[in-house]
Amino acid sequence: SAADETATAAASGAAATERFHHDKSPYDAVKDTPKERVDLLAREVIGAIHETIRKHQVTYDEYNALKAWLIQVGADGEWPLFLDVWVEHVVEDVATADRKGSKGSIEGPYYAPNAPERGADAELPMREDEAGTPLLWEGAITSVDGTPLAGTVELWHADSDGFYSQFAPGLPEWNLRGTFTTGEDGKFRIRTIQPAPYQIPTDGACGKLIAAAGWHAWRPAHLHVKVSAPGHQQLIAQLYFPGDPHNDDDIASAVKPELILSPVTQADGSAKIDYSFALDPQ
Ligand code: MBD
Ligand code: FE
Protein backbone atom coordinates (compact mmCIF):
# COMPACT_ATOMS: atom_id res chain seq x y z
CA SER A 1 0.00 0.00 0.00
CA ALA A 2 1.10 3.57 -0.63
CA ALA A 3 -0.41 4.44 2.75
CA ASP A 4 2.23 4.98 5.42
CA GLU A 5 -0.33 4.97 8.22
CA THR A 6 -2.17 1.82 9.27
CA ALA A 7 -5.88 1.48 8.60
CA THR A 8 -7.76 0.85 11.86
CA ALA A 9 -11.35 -0.14 12.50
CA ALA A 10 -11.80 2.78 14.90
CA ALA A 11 -10.55 5.37 12.39
CA SER A 12 -12.66 4.15 9.47
CA GLY A 13 -15.61 3.71 11.86
CA ALA A 14 -15.26 7.27 13.11
CA ALA A 15 -15.11 8.56 9.52
CA ALA A 16 -18.22 6.55 8.51
CA THR A 17 -20.13 7.76 11.58
CA GLU A 18 -19.15 11.40 10.87
CA ARG A 19 -20.16 10.95 7.22
CA PHE A 20 -23.59 9.66 8.28
CA HIS A 21 -24.21 12.53 10.73
CA HIS A 22 -23.22 15.04 8.07
CA ASP A 23 -25.26 13.61 5.15
CA LYS A 24 -28.27 12.34 7.07
CA SER A 25 -28.50 14.81 9.97
CA PRO A 26 -32.33 15.18 9.65
CA TYR A 27 -32.59 11.59 10.85
CA ASP A 28 -30.86 12.41 14.13
CA ALA A 29 -34.34 13.38 15.43
CA VAL A 30 -36.01 10.09 14.34
CA LYS A 31 -37.34 12.07 11.43
CA ASP A 32 -41.09 12.07 10.85
CA THR A 33 -41.65 8.52 12.10
CA PRO A 34 -45.21 8.38 13.49
CA LYS A 35 -45.56 7.31 17.12
CA GLU A 36 -47.73 4.30 16.16
CA ARG A 37 -45.04 3.08 13.80
CA VAL A 38 -42.22 3.47 16.33
CA ASP A 39 -44.34 1.67 18.94
CA LEU A 40 -45.10 -1.23 16.60
CA LEU A 41 -41.58 -1.71 15.23
CA ALA A 42 -39.75 -1.23 18.52
CA ARG A 43 -42.10 -3.64 20.31
CA GLU A 44 -41.65 -6.32 17.64
CA VAL A 45 -37.85 -6.04 17.50
CA ILE A 46 -37.53 -6.09 21.29
CA GLY A 47 -40.04 -8.95 21.41
CA ALA A 48 -37.91 -10.92 18.91
CA ILE A 49 -34.93 -10.51 21.24
CA HIS A 50 -37.01 -11.76 24.20
CA GLU A 51 -38.10 -14.76 22.18
CA THR A 52 -34.51 -15.60 21.24
CA ILE A 53 -33.45 -15.41 24.90
CA ARG A 54 -36.23 -17.79 26.00
CA LYS A 55 -35.80 -20.16 23.05
CA HIS A 56 -32.05 -20.54 23.58
CA GLN A 57 -31.94 -20.06 27.37
CA VAL A 58 -29.49 -17.15 27.12
CA THR A 59 -27.31 -16.85 30.25
CA TYR A 60 -26.13 -13.79 32.20
CA ASP A 61 -22.61 -14.40 30.81
CA GLU A 62 -24.00 -14.23 27.28
CA TYR A 63 -26.12 -11.17 28.11
CA ASN A 64 -23.09 -9.34 29.48
CA ALA A 65 -20.95 -10.38 26.49
CA LEU A 66 -23.64 -8.88 24.23
CA LYS A 67 -23.78 -5.71 26.32
CA ALA A 68 -19.99 -5.27 26.20
CA TRP A 69 -20.00 -5.90 22.46
CA LEU A 70 -22.80 -3.40 21.74
CA ILE A 71 -20.95 -0.75 23.75
CA GLN A 72 -17.81 -1.51 21.70
CA VAL A 73 -19.67 -1.16 18.37
CA GLY A 74 -20.45 2.43 19.34
CA ALA A 75 -16.97 3.12 20.72
CA ASP A 76 -15.44 1.92 17.43
CA GLY A 77 -17.91 3.99 15.36
CA GLU A 78 -18.98 0.75 13.69
CA TRP A 79 -22.77 1.18 13.73
CA PRO A 80 -22.78 2.27 10.06
CA LEU A 81 -20.68 -0.77 9.15
CA PHE A 82 -22.72 -3.20 11.25
CA LEU A 83 -26.10 -1.98 9.98
CA ASP A 84 -25.08 -1.77 6.33
CA VAL A 85 -23.47 -5.23 6.35
CA TRP A 86 -26.17 -7.15 8.24
CA VAL A 87 -29.40 -5.17 7.84
CA GLU A 88 -29.43 -2.83 4.82
CA HIS A 89 -29.87 -5.54 2.16
CA VAL A 90 -33.36 -6.36 3.45
CA VAL A 91 -34.35 -2.68 3.55
CA GLU A 92 -33.11 -2.35 -0.04
CA ASP A 93 -35.08 -5.42 -1.07
CA VAL A 94 -38.30 -4.05 0.41
CA ALA A 95 -37.74 -0.53 -0.95
CA THR A 96 -37.13 -1.61 -4.56
CA ALA A 97 -39.49 -4.60 -4.87
CA ASP A 98 -41.77 -2.81 -7.38
CA ARG A 99 -39.03 -1.61 -9.74
CA LYS A 100 -39.03 -2.69 -13.37
CA GLY A 101 -35.65 -1.22 -14.33
CA SER A 102 -32.11 -2.23 -13.36
CA LYS A 103 -31.52 -4.09 -10.12
CA GLY A 104 -29.98 -2.14 -7.28
CA SER A 105 -28.06 -3.05 -4.16
CA ILE A 106 -27.05 -1.50 -0.85
CA GLU A 107 -25.20 1.82 -0.55
CA GLY A 108 -22.94 0.73 2.31
CA PRO A 109 -21.04 3.06 4.64
CA TYR A 110 -18.42 4.55 2.28
CA TYR A 111 -20.26 6.90 -0.09
CA ALA A 112 -19.19 10.56 -0.17
CA PRO A 113 -21.36 13.14 -1.99
CA ASN A 114 -20.08 15.74 -4.47
CA ALA A 115 -17.24 13.72 -5.98
CA PRO A 116 -15.36 15.56 -8.77
CA GLU A 117 -17.26 16.05 -12.04
CA ARG A 118 -15.54 14.32 -14.97
CA GLY A 119 -17.97 14.64 -17.89
CA ALA A 120 -19.25 11.67 -19.91
CA ASP A 121 -15.95 10.21 -21.12
CA ALA A 122 -13.09 10.28 -18.62
CA GLU A 123 -10.90 8.59 -16.05
CA LEU A 124 -11.95 8.22 -12.43
CA PRO A 125 -9.67 10.34 -10.21
CA MET A 126 -6.72 8.15 -9.24
CA ARG A 127 -3.05 8.26 -8.34
CA GLU A 128 -0.37 8.53 -11.01
CA ASP A 129 0.75 4.96 -10.23
CA GLU A 130 -2.64 3.49 -9.24
CA ALA A 131 -2.22 -0.31 -9.12
CA GLY A 132 -4.73 -2.78 -10.52
CA THR A 133 -5.99 -4.13 -13.84
CA PRO A 134 -7.23 -1.22 -15.99
CA LEU A 135 -10.98 -1.26 -16.66
CA LEU A 136 -12.78 0.42 -19.54
CA TRP A 137 -16.51 0.72 -18.90
CA GLU A 138 -19.00 1.72 -21.58
CA GLY A 139 -22.69 2.12 -20.93
CA ALA A 140 -25.71 4.36 -21.03
CA ILE A 141 -28.47 5.66 -18.81
CA THR A 142 -31.95 5.04 -20.18
CA SER A 143 -35.51 5.01 -18.93
CA VAL A 144 -37.17 1.57 -18.61
CA ASP A 145 -38.66 2.08 -22.11
CA GLY A 146 -35.17 2.53 -23.59
CA THR A 147 -35.28 6.33 -23.98
CA PRO A 148 -31.76 7.74 -23.39
CA LEU A 149 -31.49 10.01 -20.36
CA ALA A 150 -29.15 12.88 -19.57
CA GLY A 151 -28.08 12.12 -16.03
CA THR A 152 -25.19 11.30 -13.72
CA VAL A 153 -23.30 8.19 -12.69
CA GLU A 154 -21.52 8.61 -9.37
CA LEU A 155 -18.88 5.91 -9.07
CA TRP A 156 -16.82 4.98 -6.01
CA HIS A 157 -14.79 1.90 -5.20
CA ALA A 158 -11.88 0.47 -3.21
CA ASP A 159 -8.33 0.43 -4.53
CA SER A 160 -6.34 -2.70 -5.32
CA ASP A 161 -5.59 -3.09 -1.58
CA GLY A 162 -9.32 -2.94 -0.71
CA PHE A 163 -9.18 0.58 0.80
CA TYR A 164 -11.62 3.47 0.26
CA SER A 165 -10.44 7.09 0.15
CA GLN A 166 -11.75 9.23 3.04
CA PHE A 167 -12.15 6.07 5.17
CA ALA A 168 -8.57 4.73 5.15
CA PRO A 169 -5.43 6.81 5.75
CA GLY A 170 -2.87 7.94 3.19
CA LEU A 171 -5.11 8.21 0.12
CA PRO A 172 -5.89 11.37 -1.88
CA GLU A 173 -9.30 12.76 -0.80
CA TRP A 174 -11.17 11.85 -3.99
CA ASN A 175 -9.18 8.78 -5.01
CA LEU A 176 -11.40 6.44 -7.05
CA ARG A 177 -14.47 8.67 -6.59
CA GLY A 178 -16.06 10.64 -9.41
CA THR A 179 -19.25 11.96 -11.01
CA PHE A 180 -19.89 11.35 -14.73
CA THR A 181 -22.54 13.48 -16.42
CA THR A 182 -24.02 12.21 -19.66
CA GLY A 183 -25.42 14.15 -22.60
CA GLU A 184 -28.83 13.61 -24.20
CA ASP A 185 -27.65 10.25 -25.62
CA GLY A 186 -27.19 8.96 -22.04
CA LYS A 187 -23.82 7.44 -22.93
CA PHE A 188 -20.76 7.30 -20.70
CA ARG A 189 -17.27 5.84 -20.97
CA ILE A 190 -15.25 5.48 -17.76
CA ARG A 191 -11.68 4.39 -17.21
CA THR A 192 -10.72 3.01 -13.82
CA ILE A 193 -8.96 0.03 -12.24
CA GLN A 194 -10.38 -3.21 -10.90
CA PRO A 195 -10.87 -3.02 -7.11
CA ALA A 196 -9.78 -5.74 -4.68
CA PRO A 197 -12.20 -7.67 -2.46
CA TYR A 198 -13.02 -5.84 0.79
CA GLN A 199 -12.35 -7.30 4.22
CA ILE A 200 -14.28 -6.05 7.27
CA PRO A 201 -11.65 -4.65 9.68
CA THR A 202 -10.56 -7.45 12.01
CA ASP A 203 -9.53 -5.13 14.88
CA GLY A 204 -12.98 -3.64 15.65
CA ALA A 205 -16.25 -4.84 17.16
CA CYS A 206 -17.62 -6.18 13.84
CA GLY A 207 -14.41 -8.14 13.32
CA LYS A 208 -14.74 -9.51 16.85
CA LEU A 209 -18.26 -10.77 16.13
CA ILE A 210 -17.08 -12.39 12.89
CA ALA A 211 -14.18 -14.15 14.66
CA ALA A 212 -16.30 -15.19 17.66
CA ALA A 213 -18.97 -16.67 15.37
CA GLY A 214 -16.47 -18.35 13.03
CA TRP A 215 -17.66 -16.42 9.97
CA HIS A 216 -15.48 -14.94 7.22
CA ALA A 217 -15.03 -11.17 6.83
CA TRP A 218 -15.13 -10.74 3.05
CA ARG A 219 -17.13 -8.87 0.47
CA PRO A 220 -16.39 -9.70 -3.19
CA ALA A 221 -14.68 -6.99 -5.25
CA HIS A 222 -17.29 -4.43 -6.27
CA LEU A 223 -17.97 -1.08 -7.95
CA HIS A 224 -20.49 1.23 -6.25
CA VAL A 225 -22.78 3.49 -8.30
CA LYS A 226 -25.55 6.02 -7.78
CA VAL A 227 -27.35 6.77 -11.03
CA SER A 228 -29.64 9.80 -11.26
CA ALA A 229 -31.74 11.43 -13.99
CA PRO A 230 -34.57 13.98 -13.84
CA GLY A 231 -38.03 12.46 -13.40
CA HIS A 232 -36.60 9.07 -12.47
CA GLN A 233 -35.95 7.11 -9.29
CA GLN A 234 -32.33 7.18 -8.23
CA LEU A 235 -30.64 3.81 -8.62
CA ILE A 236 -28.04 2.70 -6.08
CA ALA A 237 -26.20 -0.45 -7.14
CA GLN A 238 -23.01 -2.45 -6.90
CA LEU A 239 -21.39 -4.39 -9.73
CA TYR A 240 -19.33 -7.53 -9.25
CA PHE A 241 -16.73 -9.55 -11.16
CA PRO A 242 -17.32 -13.13 -12.30
CA GLY A 243 -15.32 -15.81 -10.51
CA ASP A 244 -14.86 -13.91 -7.24
CA PRO A 245 -14.91 -16.56 -4.50
CA HIS A 246 -17.19 -14.38 -2.37
CA ASN A 247 -19.91 -13.68 -4.95
CA ASP A 248 -21.78 -16.62 -3.41
CA ASP A 249 -21.22 -15.77 0.25
CA ASP A 250 -20.87 -11.98 0.51
CA ILE A 251 -20.82 -11.06 4.23
CA ALA A 252 -23.17 -8.15 3.31
CA SER A 253 -25.60 -10.35 1.25
CA ALA A 254 -25.58 -7.70 -1.49
CA VAL A 255 -24.84 -9.73 -4.65
CA LYS A 256 -27.58 -10.42 -7.23
CA PRO A 257 -26.99 -12.34 -10.49
CA GLU A 258 -28.04 -9.28 -12.54
CA LEU A 259 -25.18 -7.29 -10.99
CA ILE A 260 -22.33 -9.57 -12.14
CA LEU A 261 -20.33 -8.05 -14.99
CA SER A 262 -19.01 -9.84 -18.07
CA PRO A 263 -15.56 -8.31 -18.58
CA VAL A 264 -13.71 -9.02 -21.81
CA THR A 265 -9.91 -8.99 -21.68
CA GLN A 266 -8.45 -6.81 -24.42
CA ALA A 267 -5.15 -7.09 -26.31
CA ASP A 268 -3.43 -4.62 -23.93
CA GLY A 269 -4.41 -6.63 -20.83
CA SER A 270 -7.10 -4.23 -19.74
CA ALA A 271 -10.67 -5.40 -19.21
CA LYS A 272 -13.68 -3.94 -21.00
CA ILE A 273 -17.13 -3.97 -19.51
CA ASP A 274 -20.46 -3.01 -21.02
CA TYR A 275 -23.13 -2.26 -18.46
CA SER A 276 -26.06 0.13 -18.76
CA PHE A 277 -28.73 1.37 -16.38
CA ALA A 278 -32.50 1.48 -16.95
CA LEU A 279 -34.22 3.79 -14.46
CA ASP A 280 -37.83 3.61 -13.33
CA PRO A 281 -39.87 6.79 -13.80
CA GLN A 282 -40.72 8.58 -10.55
C1 MBD B 1 -18.17 -2.06 1.93
O1 MBD B 1 -17.24 -1.71 1.02
C2 MBD B 1 -19.43 -2.11 1.52
O2 MBD B 1 -19.69 -1.83 0.25
C3 MBD B 1 -20.44 -2.47 2.40
C4 MBD B 1 -21.84 -2.58 1.92
C5 MBD B 1 -20.15 -2.76 3.70
C6 MBD B 1 -18.86 -2.70 4.13
C7 MBD B 1 -17.88 -2.35 3.24
FE1 FE C 1 -17.98 -1.18 -0.77
From TrEMBL:
GO terms for molecular function: catechol 1,2-dioxygenase activity. Residues 36-102 form the Catechol dioxygenase N-terminal domain. Keywords: Dioxygenase, Iron, Metal-binding, Oxidoreductase. Residues 1-17 have a biased composition (Low complexity). Gene3D superfamilies: Aromatic compound dioxygenase (2.60.130.10), Catechol 1,2-dioxygenase multimerisation domain-like (6.10.10.40). InterPro entries: 1_2-CTD_multi_dom (IPR043029), Catechol_dOase_N (IPR007535), Cchol_dOase_actb (IPR012800), Intradiol_dOase_C (IPR000627), Intradiol_dOase_core (IPR015889), Intradiol_RC_Dioxygenase (IPR050770). Its EC number is 1.13.11.1. Pfam families: Dioxygenase_C (PF00775), Dioxygenase_N (PF04444). It is an enzyme of class 1 (oxidoreductase). The keyword Oxidoreductase applies. Residues 1-29 are annotated as: Disordered. Residues 18-29 have a biased composition (Basic and acidic residues). Its cofactor is Fe(3+). The keyword Metal-binding applies. Residues 106-280 form the Intradiol ring-cleavage dioxygenases domain. Belongs to the intradiol ring-cleavage dioxygenase family. This is Catechol 1,2-dioxygenase. The lineage of its organism: Bacteria, Bacillati, Actinomycetota, Actinomycetes, Pseudonocardiales.
